[in-house]
Amino acid sequence: MSHLAATDPEIAALVVAEEQLQADTLRLIPSENYVSHAVLEATGTVLQNKYSEGYPGKRYYEGQQNIDQVETLAIERAKALFAMDHANVQPYSGSPANLAVYLAFLKPGDTVMGMALPMGGHLTHGWGVSATGTWFRGVQYGVERETGRVDLDKVRDLALAERPKLIFCGGTAVPRTIDFAGYAEIAREVGAVLVADVAHIAGLIAGGAHPSPAGHADVVSTTTHKTLRGPRGAMLLSTEEHAKAIDRAVFPGLQGGPHNHTTAAIAVALKEASGAEFRDYAHQVVANAQALGEQLATRGFELVSGGTDNHLLLIDLSGKDVPGKVAAKALDRAGIVVNYNTVPYDTRKPFDPSGIRIGTPALTSRGIPASEMGTVAEWIDRVVAAAKTGDEETVAKVRTEVKALMDAYPAPGLPVR
Ligand SMILES: *Cc1c(COP(=O)(O)O)cnc(C)c1O
Is residue 359 domain-shared with residue 308, that is, in the same domain? Predict the structure, then answer.
């Protein structure tokens, strides 16, 4: 980074500081990961200098000799990996990708059904504060209070009563397997388009550690930067029937020129995700999350839905008498990075909720095995207890222990110093 350091030492220093932070801390935010050097290199290329409005072979700018090939590689790899007829790799991120889906299938005021945000759904599934909940009529399903899981019979009843044109399944704090076939049956019954938003679990699907929405969902929406371990970006995959509507919605409907450097990095990530090593990674992510869940449960932590089938754990801290935000901030001081999160039927406010959300994608990318999850659970236990009593000595001690484990498992994509 010698050029960056010479031109802008302030930004260069902050990048170096962030590298150090990502190296030294146990990153448990389930939507985050470490990308490979190859993905980072593709992101930082001159491909970003090029304007390419349109699609391969049908551009509005000349000079696409290389870019068309880059995007075609990304498209073909996406289709093959997710077994879908069609792929659009241009959405700037997950939220714009979902907005493009609305543009493809709905008119303002039409009804969309998705999981409520406080139940684990995403803002873009028709939640009130999002454009998707103000320009469209959002109706929302949730999880059961006792099980922490979706009751598909209730989803069906709501769909029959409200007749949505679009149904979203998937979410951002969902620790359990998504029954794509079950949602597809409901969507067919009411004549809705089914969108599987697999932003969180795309890498698990690619690696065979979660069932695939292919053959069930009309449209699959995903970010590329979570478990899929690619650059910040997104993709929309679909059946042949909806290919044109999706493409028209992304461009010219919603976006201008695609981010070609990101497209290249997506292609690289898709290549990586199609290999045997990534299959092992995806399965290890789940094994680590389940081991961590068991270790936390042993220490009296209450897990929403009682555990996990995927990469994510939602912990209700009400029983520990520590608010989620207080716990998250103490954990951050201890070098353990999580986010505070609403739990279903939370009695506290969204900006000060009862839970924390953690996941294993990033630590698994470092090669940390399931046998270390007892240690991780013990750290969380000690810090949450220390947060309650204001015991900063314990917090500092855990930080040292965390650093030692991180040093033993260097993260991919970071410079060795
Ligand atoms: C992360 C996420 C998104 C949005 O992605 P951004 O890239 O943050 O806009 C959409 N849907 C779900 C389910 C997500 O988890």
Answer: yes
